[in-house]
Inverse folding.
C-alpha cells in the first residue's frame, strides 16, 4: 500500500509539471512569435520540405500537406507522404536535389546535414529551420508553433497543440486514478536478425512508457541490443514490440523466433505483448502520440481502465 | 608504341574533358545551355547581363557543381595513381591501396570522430566535417606507418610481411570499428554507414584545397618513378641490379599512397574499386609500362569517378546514391568481364 | 675486375660461405661448380652486394662495391638471378629494354641494342611477343638478353654474374647461350657463371671454382679442377675423365 501511495504522489507531481510546462511554453512561444513576426517575411511559405518524420506529421496535422513539396525517408506517416519526392536520408541531403524542388523552407531536426550542404542551401536562398525534436512537451510546442507561424497556419498550429496537450493532460488525470502496481516494461525494436534493440533513456520509447505510467526496465542511453538472457533477467511484465514489417501477433512471433528465451518472461506468459507502429519512435513526438499513450495505459492497467470506463458511462 | 600512347592520351583527355563538362552541365536542377554558357563566359571575365535564372545557375555551377567536380577529379585520379603504386610495390596486378592499411586506418579515424564526437556531446556542426576529415587522414597515415614499421627488418622492407601486417591491422581496426559501432546510437550508426559508402556530396572549396594539393604532388611525383616501378616489377634484387635505390622507392610508394588515399578518403569517404580496376583495365589496354600507365590511370580514374558521380546524382534525384555503390556496381562486373575474357 | 677477398657470409650462427677468394678477370669466363647447397648462389649474392658480408670485401674495378653510386654500378655489373617472377604482360622488347634503364642513350640506340641482344641469345623471333606467353626456356633467354643489353656490347671493366643461365634450356640453346656469354667475354668483359653440367663448364669456361660446404675445394683451369678424385669427393659421383676427341678439353663421363 505504501508503494502505491508513493506512486500516486509521483503521478500527481507529474501532472502538475506537464500542465505547468504547457502553460509556460505557451506564454514563451507567444512572446517569441511576437518578436519573430517582425523579422520573418509577411508572406507564408508555399513550398516547404520536411526532413523528419514527426515534423511531417505535424505539418499534415495542421493542414499544410499541400505546401509540402518533398520529404525525407523517415517521413512515412501518413502514407500519402510517400507519394512526394524523396530527398533521401536526413543526414545525407544533396544540395542540388533539394534545390530542384525549389523549396522556400527546409524543416528538419538538429540531425539534418551534412553541414556543408546546409550552407550551400542557405547560400541558394533556402531558409533552413532546425527544430528541436526532443521527447518533451516544451520542444514540441516550440516546434509546432514555429511551423505554423512560417506556414501562415498559426491558428491551426494552436489547435493541434491544444488537442495534443489536452489529450496528454487527460491521460495524466486518468493515470492518477489508476490503481495497481506500476508495470515493468521493455520496449524492443525488432531490427530483423540478431538481438532486438531496446529503447533506453532519452528515447521517444522511454518517454511513451513513462507517460503511460510504466517503468522502463532499460536504463541505458538510446537504443541498445540486449541479450536474450539479460532480457529474461529483467523479466518485463509488458513488452512493447515495434516491428517495421509485422504487426500484432506476427510481430510477437518474429521477436520470439529471434529470442526464444523471451517466452519465459511474465509478459509473454500472460500475453501482455503490445505491438506499436515503429514510425512513432523516430524523429520526436508527433501528433499521434496521445492516442498511443491512451492505448498503452489501457494495456498497462487493464482492470482500472475498465473501471474508469464504466464510471464515465 | 609512342603513337599508340599518344592516341590513348588524346582519347583519355577528351573523355575527361567531356566528363568535366557534363558534371558542370548536368544535375537534378536543369540549367539551360544558354545560361550555362553565360556562366562560363562570366567566369572568364565577360560582362553578362544578370537575370534571376542566371544568378541561380551561377550559384549552382560555381558553389555546388564545380567544387564537386574538382573533388571527384582529385579523388579519382589519386585513387587510381595509388592503385598503380601499390600494384607495383606488391608486384601483383590485383593489389589494392587498402592492403597497406590506409583505408582501414581512415575508417577507424572516421569512426572515432563520428561516434566519439557524438558521445562527447557532439562537436559543433560547423567543425564536424573538418574534424572527421582530419581524424580519417590521421588514422590512415598512422596505421600505414605502423604497417610499414612492422614490415621493416634489418633495414629492409619486407613486402610480404607488410602485406600480412596490413591484413592483421585491418582486422584490428575492424574490431575497433565494431566496438565503436556497438557504442553508437542509431543516428550515429547511419552516419558511419553512409560515410563508408563514400560520397562527393557537400564538397566545398575549404575542404578541397588540401586534397587538390596532395593529388597534384602525387601526380607529379609518381611518374618520376615510372622507370624504377618498371624495374621493380622484375623483382626487388633485379631493380637493385639495374641501379635503383629500392628501399627508398618502396618508402616513397608507401608514403605517396598513404598521403593520397588518406586525403581522398578523408574528403569523400570510402570509394572502392577505382584503385583496383582502373590500373588493371588500362594495363590490359596499353601494357604495364608505368611511363604510360601512371598518367593514363590518373586521367581514367578521374573520368570514371566523375561519371559515377553523375549517375549517383541523377539516378534517384532529388535524393542521391552513395558513390561507392555506383563505382562498385560499374567496376565489379566490368572487372569480372575482363578477367573472364582475357584469361590474363 | 671483380675481386673477392676472404668472403664470409653467415646465416644465423653458421657460416654458409667461408674464406672465399676470387678474381674475375677481363676476357675470361669463370665457372662455379658444386653440389646443391654448396654455397654457389650465396657466393653470387655476396659478390653483387645482395647479402651482407660477415667478413672480407668485394672490389669492383679496385673500388669497394658498396661505394659505387647505384646507377654507375649498374653500368658495370649485371646479374642474372636463377628465377624470375615477372608477373606482368610486358612485351619481350620491353623486358630486354629494362636493361637499358641505367643509361640515357636515347630511344634509337636502345632499340638497336635490344634487337642485337635478342639476336645474340637466338631469340630475335620473340620480338613483339608478350612475356607471359613465353615458355620457361624462352623467358630465361629473354632475361639473359636483358642483362647482356645492360652491359652491351661488353668491354673492359664490365662484369656479368649468371646463376644457372642454362637450367631450363634445350641442348641446342644451352650451347648457343653459352656461346653468347663467351662472345661477351671476348669483348673484354668478365663473367662468372654457375653451371651444373660439367661438360658445358669444361667447354666454355676458362677458370673453374669448385665449391664444397661453403669453401673453395679447388680452383684453376678445367684440366686442373675436373679430375676424378675431387669430383668424387664433392659430388660423390664416380666419373671417367677423358679428352674431348675434337676440342681437347676434359670430357666427363659418369660410370
Amino acid at each position: 500500500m505504501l508503494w502505491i501511495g508513493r506512486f500516486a504522489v509521483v503521478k500527481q507531481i507529474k501532472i502538475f509539471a506537464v500542465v505547468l510546462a504547457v502553460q509556460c511554453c505557451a506564454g514563451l512561444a507567444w512572446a517569441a512569435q511576437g518578436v519573430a513576426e517582425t523579422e520573418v517575411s509577411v508572406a507564408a511559405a508555399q513550398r516547404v520540405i520536411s526532413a523528419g518524420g514527426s515534423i511531417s506529421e505535424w505539418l499534415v496535422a495542421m493542414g499544410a500537406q499541400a505546401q509540402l513539396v518533398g520529404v525525407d525517408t523517415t517521413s512515412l506517416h501518413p502514407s500519402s507522404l510517400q507519394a512526394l519526392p524523396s530527398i533521401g536520408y536526413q543526414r545525407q541531403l544533396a544540395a542540388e536535389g533539394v534545390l530542384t524542388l525549389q523549396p522556400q523552407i527546409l524543416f528538419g531536426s538538429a540531425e539534418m546535414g551534412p553541414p556543408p550542404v546546409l550552407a550551400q542551401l542557405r547560400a541558394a536562398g533556402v531558409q533552413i529551420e532546425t527544430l528541436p525534436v526532443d521527447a518533451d512537451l516544451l520542444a514540441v510546442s516550440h516546434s509546432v508553433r514555429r511551423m505554423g507561424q512560417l506556414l501562415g497556419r498559426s491558428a491551426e498550429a494552436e489547435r493541434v497543440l491544444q488537442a495534443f496537450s489536452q489529450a496528454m493532460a487527460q491521460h495524466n488525470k486518468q493515470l492518477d486514478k489508476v490503481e495497481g502496481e506500476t508495470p515493468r516494461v521493455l520496449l524492443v525494436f525488432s531490427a530483423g536478425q540478431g538481438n532486438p534493440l531496446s529503447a533506453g533513456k532519452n528515447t521517444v520509447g522511454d518517454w511513451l512508457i513513462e507517460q503511460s505510467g510504466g517503468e522502463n526496465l532499460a536504463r541505458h542511453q538510446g537504443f541498445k541490443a540486449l541479450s536474450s538472457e539479460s532480457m529474461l533477467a529483467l523479466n518485463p511484465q509488458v513488452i512493447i514490440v515495434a516491428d517495421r514489417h509485422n504487426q500484432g501477433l506476427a510481430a510477437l512471433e518474429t521477436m520470439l523466433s529471434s529470442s526464444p528465451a523471451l517466452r519465459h518472461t511474465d509478459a509473454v506468459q500472460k500475453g501482455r505483448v503490445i505491438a506499436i507502429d515503429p514510425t512513432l519512435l523516430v524523429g520526436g513526438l508527433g501528433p499521434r502520440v496521445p492516442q498511443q499513450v491512451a492505448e498503452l495505459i489501457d494495456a498497462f492497467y487493464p482492470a482500472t481502465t475498465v473501471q474508469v470506463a464504466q464510471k464515465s458511462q | 608504341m609512342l603513337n599508340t600512347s599518344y592516341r590513348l592520351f588524346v582519347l583519355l583527355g577528351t573523355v575527361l574533358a567531356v566528363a568535366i563538362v557534363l558534371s558542370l552541365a548536368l544535375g537534378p536542377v536543369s540549367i539551360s545551355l544558354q545560361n550555362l554558357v553565360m556562366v562560363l563566359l562570366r567566369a572568364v571575365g565577360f560582362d553578362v547581363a544578370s537575370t534571376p535564372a542566371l544568378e541561380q545557375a551561377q550559384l549552382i555551377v560555381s558553389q555546388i557543381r564545380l567544387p564537386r567536380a574538382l573533388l571527384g577529379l582529385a579523388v579519382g585520379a589519386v585513387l587510381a595513381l595509388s592503385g598503380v603504386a601499390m600494384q607495383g610495390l606488391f608486384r601483383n596486378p590485383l593489389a589494392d591501396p587498402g592492403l597497406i592499411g590506409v583505408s582501414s586506418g581512415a575508417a577507424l579515424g572516421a569512426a572515432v570522430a563520428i561516434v566519439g564526437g557524438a558521445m562527447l556531446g557532439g562537436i559543433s556542426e560547423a567543425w564536424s566535417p573538418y574534424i572527421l576529415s582530419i581524424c580519417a587522414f590521421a588514422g590512415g597515415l598512422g596505421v600505414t606507418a605502423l604497417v610499414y614499421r612492422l614490415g621493416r627488418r634489418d633495414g629492409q622492407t619486407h613486402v610480404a610481411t607488410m602485406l600480412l601486417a596490413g591484413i592483421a591491422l585491418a582486422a584490428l581496426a575492424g574490431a575497433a570499428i565494431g566496438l565503436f559501432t556497438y557504442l553508437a546510437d542509431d543516428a550515429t550508426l547511419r552516419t558511419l554507414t553512409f560515410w563508408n559508402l563514400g560520397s562527393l556530396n557537400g564538397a566545398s572549396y575549404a575542404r578541397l584545397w588540401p586534397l587538390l594539393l596532395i593529388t597534384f604532388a602525387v601526380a607529379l611525383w609518381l611518374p618520376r618513378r615510372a622507370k624504377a616501378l618498371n624495374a621493380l616489377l622484375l623483382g626487388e634484387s633485379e631493380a637493385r641490379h639495374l641501379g635503383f635505390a629500392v628501399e627508398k622507392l618502396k618508402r616513397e610508394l608507401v608514403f605517396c599512397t598513404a598521403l593520397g588515399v588518406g586525403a581522398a578518403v578523408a574528403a569523400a569517404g570510402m570509394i572502392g574499386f577505382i584503385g583496383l580496376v582502373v590500373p588493371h583495365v588500362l594495363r590490359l589496354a596499353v601494357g604495364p609500362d608505368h611511363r604510360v600507365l601512371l598518367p593514363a590511370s590518373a586521367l581514367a580514374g578521374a573520368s570514371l569517378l566523375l561519371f559515377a558521380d553523375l549517375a549517383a546524382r541523377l539516378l534517384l534525384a532529388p535524393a542521391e546514391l552513395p558513390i561507392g555503390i555506383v563505382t562498385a556496381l560499374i567496376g565489379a562486373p566490368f572487372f569480372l568481364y575482363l578477367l573472364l575474357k582475357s584469361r590474363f | 675486375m671483380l675481386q673477392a677477398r676472404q668472403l664470409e657470409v653467415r646465416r644465423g650462427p653458421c657460416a654458409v660461405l667461408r674464406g672465399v677468394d676470387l678474381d674475375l678477370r677481363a676476357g675470361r669466363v669463370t665457372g662455379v661448380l658444386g653440389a646443391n647447397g654448396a654455397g654457389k648462389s650465396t657466393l653470387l649474392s655476396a659478390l653483387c652486394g645482395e647479402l651482407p658480408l660477415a667478413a672480407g670485401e668485394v672490389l669492383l674495378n679496385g673500388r669497394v662495391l658498396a661505394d659505387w653510386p647505384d646507377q654507375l654500378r649498374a653500368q658495370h655489373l649485371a646479374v642474372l638471378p636463377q628465377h624470375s617472377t615477372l608477373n606482368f604482360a610486358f612485351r619481350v622488347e620491353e623486358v630486354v629494354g629494362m636493361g637499358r634503364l641505367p643509361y640515357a642513350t636515347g630511344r634509337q640506340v636502345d632499340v638497336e641494342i635490344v634487337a642485337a641482344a635478342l639476336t645474340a641469345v637466338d631469340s630475335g623471333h620473340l620480338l613483339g611477343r608478350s612475356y607471359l606467353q613465353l615458355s620457361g626456356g624462352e623467358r630465361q633467354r629473354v632475361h639473359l638478353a636483358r642483362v647482356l643489353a645492360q652491359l652491351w656490347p661488353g668491354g673492359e671493366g664490365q662484369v656479368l654474374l649468371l646463376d644457372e643461365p642454362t637450367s631450363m634450356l634445350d641442348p641446342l640453346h644451352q650451347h648457343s647461350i653459352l656461346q653468347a656469354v663467351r662472345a661477351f667475354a671476348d669483348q673484354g668483359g668478365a663473367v662468372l657463371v654457375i653451371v651444373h653440367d660439367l661438360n658445358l663448364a669444361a667447354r666454355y669456361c676458362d677458370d673453374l671454382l669448385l665449391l664444397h660446404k661453403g669453401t673453395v675445394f679447388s680452383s684453376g683451369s678445367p684440366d686442373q679442377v675436373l679430375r676424378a678424385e675431387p669430383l668424387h669427393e664433392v659430388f660423390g659421383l664416380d666419373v671417367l675423365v677423358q679428352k674431348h676427341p675434337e676440342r681437347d678439353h676434359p670430357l666427363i663421363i659418369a660410370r
DSSP finds nine helices and twelve strands in chain C. The mean pLDDT of chain C is 93.
